[in-house]
Design a protein that fits this description.
This protein has helices at residues 19-26, 31-48, 55-70, 76-86, 95-104, 117-126, 149-159, 173-181, 210-222; strands at residues 3-6, 108-113, 135-138, 166-170, 185-189, 205-207. It has 223 residues and is α/β, with parallel strands linked by helices. It has a six-stranded parallel β-sheet with strand order 3-2-1-4-5-6, with helices on both faces. Helix 6 (117-126) links the parallel strand 2 and strand 3. The two termini are 14 Å apart.
Length: 223
């Protein structure tokens, strides 16, 4: 059975929903991009050092680091505000129609996220997307963040289908590079302000709108 595995943060959930929180904390909503970059850097570094840490804690550490770079003290109130905002993000408007295309074509649809499992379920539920997923998986099951190979291989094992029948869908080039490295097909959704580094293998397919991406996945699987 063809299987689509979706990244969650930014790919499906719109991180611009965090901008009011960052504007309140820093007086500058652009701090959100700095925070997310620091969060990803922390996750890659903890992978390299084989440190066990949950994504929520790394998010708090990244917020403290962002505050330090901007001369803003971060305490429990700011951390709680960010956590609450993360759990109430809205989905990009093209996500639900794309999920409906895949389910309507007989695909299995799963989520794979660096976030903790309970946090992922809470976010997808709040965004009204949880009903579309056959499984919601977290990297906490293997103790390594994407793009390490373990999360993708874990998801493939849960799916129970050959690697070549699995598509990883993400708006992050590094995520898809990790999926490519273990043999998955990849679908890149080109969200505004993102880019795909030429040092990584090109995605199998790409599109600027998620429904079009899903339709192309269905076409290729049927070919």
């Amino acid at each position: 059975m063809p299987t689509a595995i979706f990244d969650v943060n930014e790919t499906m959930l719109d991180l611009r929903g965090l901008d009011p929180t960052f504007n309140e904390i820093f007086g500058d909503q652009t701090a959100r991009r700095e925070w997310f970059a620091r969060l990803l850097h922390l996750s890659v570094t903890t992978n390299a050092l084989r440190l066990r840490c949950d994504f929520g804690s790394l998010g708090a550490e990244a917020l403290v680091a962002t505050g330090a770079s901007r001369g803003v003290a971060i305490g429990a109130e700011e951390r709680q505000a960010l956590g609450a905002a993360m759990r109430s993000l809205s989905a990009h408007p093209d996500v639900e129609p794309a999920l409906e295309v895949l389910h309507g074509s007989g695909w299995r649809v799963m989520a794979l996220t660096n976030s903790a499992g309970d946090a992922a379920i809470a976010k997808l539920t709040s965004a009204g997307l949880i009903k579309h997923f056959d499984r919601t998986l977290s990297v906490e099951a293997v103790g390594q963040f994407k793009p390490a190979p373990e999360p993708y291989l874990y998801a493939a094992k849960v799916a129970g289908v050959p690697l070549e029948e699995i598509w990883m869908v993400a708006s992050h080039d590094w995520d898809l590079a990790g999926a490519t490295a273990v043999g998955l097909k990849t679908a890149y959704i080109d969200r505004a302000g993102m880019s795909f580094a030429e040092v990584y293998p090109a995605a199998t397919i790409s599109a600027q709108e998620m429904t079009a991406l899903a339709e192309r996945m269905v076409e290729q699987a049927a070919a």
